[in-house]
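Fold it.
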Amino acid sequence: MLNQALADLLQQRAKVILNRSVNVADATGLLIADGSERGQVVPDALRACQEGRPVRSELHNEPVMWVPFTYDQQTIGACGVIEAFGQVTPEAIGLLQGLAEVITQEHFVSLHLQPSDELRRSLLREVLTNSRLGAE
């Protein structure tokens, strides 16, 4: 459910808002948005997703807080916030989870709207180019 485009978007926006490096893993713990280790499975990211709560650990010899996020009442991934310059506050965790959920919701709504936009364009094209409409 969590794809590369969505993970990259989450990583970029979370980094700007939190002013920290952020990694993104899917619900299986697989890093899909990370500066250097894409494709690596991170057991603590998986644990955060399975338990539905933030988990502190290390990644690349740096402290990290894995914060799970949901879509449609299902955990779909976790953001790993690097804590090299201090621990992530509970407020920042809530902000990150809310941000991830809103971005995910926007992403999936836009995916669902695109086919209906295409259908609308097709219908309009057919109506405008159909010569039989004016004959009746």
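The mean pLDDT is 85.
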